[in-house]
Amino acid sequence: MKEGELMNNFSQEPERRTIVDVTGLNRFLSRMYGMMTIAVLVSALSAYLTMTVFRTQVMTLFASNPAMTWILLLVPLALTFGISFRATRNPVASFVMLMIMAIVYGVEFSLIAGAYTGRSIASAFVASSTVFITMAVIGTTTKKNLNNLGSYASAALIGLIVAMLINMFLRNPMVSYVFSFIAVIIFTILTAWDAQRMKQIYENYGGQVSVDGLAVAGALALYLDFVNLFLQFLQIFGFSNRN
Q1: Where are the alpha helices (DSSP H) in the chain?
Q2: How far apart, in whole angstroms, are the C-alpha atoms of residue 90 and residue 133?
Q3: Which residue in 5, 91, 119, 241 has its CB near the most CB atoms, within 10 A?
Q4: For the CA atoms of 231, 235, 236, 239, what is the dihedral angle to 10 degrees?
């Protein structure tokens, strides 16, 4: 009788552990995508308020102080590094920094959106949301390892950034248009890779680091993927409609 009970315990233990692991993973993914969604909504609200309620004040501030443009560009970069290094050590502060970044990007979006029609903006949002959701699901559920594909995409992104910087001096709109298609392909791949990568990190180290901090780090990566998809689709849809 004792031996039978012992065998039953061993046979049931793996199943029980699997259930616990799946529950923890689902909780982690919910937190990560929830934070990412909040960041997107904060950016959208920030952009809307900047374009409507605070439009005059913001335009006056940027017109009177040209340095604000550089501040607006450099602050998200600094916050990205801050979140990356502090996420697992101080999840609360990292989440606050993520929200500040979302607000800053919202202000940037409002300034960029002035050059595009409402139709182009809506089309870009729908397209980027569709691509992001599809690739996030694929990255989370696929059994195929995307590490090599993600590494190639990361290398291609570095090359594309260099080419974009050069084109800033050449000011060739058709080249920028072509680069936007390339960027969409790159960030489509990166979205799936980041989704899979964060899942793998949780499975390997979830018990050793702060789960909330890991969720913030994942939300940051996915938020940046979505933002870049949106900006590139905006460039594509608005190419013929820019003021």
Answers
A1: 2-51, 55-64, 67-86, 91-113, 118-141, 147-170, 173-205, 211-237
A2: 28
A3: 91
A4: 160
Radius of gyration, alpha carbons of the chain: 21
pLDDT at 242 over 80: no
Amino acid identity of residue 7, one-letter, is: M
Residue recorded with tokens 């799946």: 22
In this prediction, residue 240 carries a pLDDT of 58
226 and 128 Cβ atoms separated by less than 8 Å: yes
Residue 21 above 90 pLDDT?
A: no
How many whole angstroms separate alpha carbon 38 and alpha carbon 78? 20
Contact 79, 101 (CB under 8 A): yes
Distance CA 186, CA 240 (A): 23
Burial class (CB in 10 A: 0-12, 13-18, 19+), 166: exposed
For tokens 């952009």, the residue is: 47
The pLDDT assigned to 241 comes to 57
> pTM (2 decimals)?
0.86
83's tokens: 């979140």
CA distance 85 to 231: 26
Task: Give residue-wise pLDDT tens across range 188-238.
Answer: 999 999 999 999 999 888 778 888 999 999 999 999 999 999 999 999 998
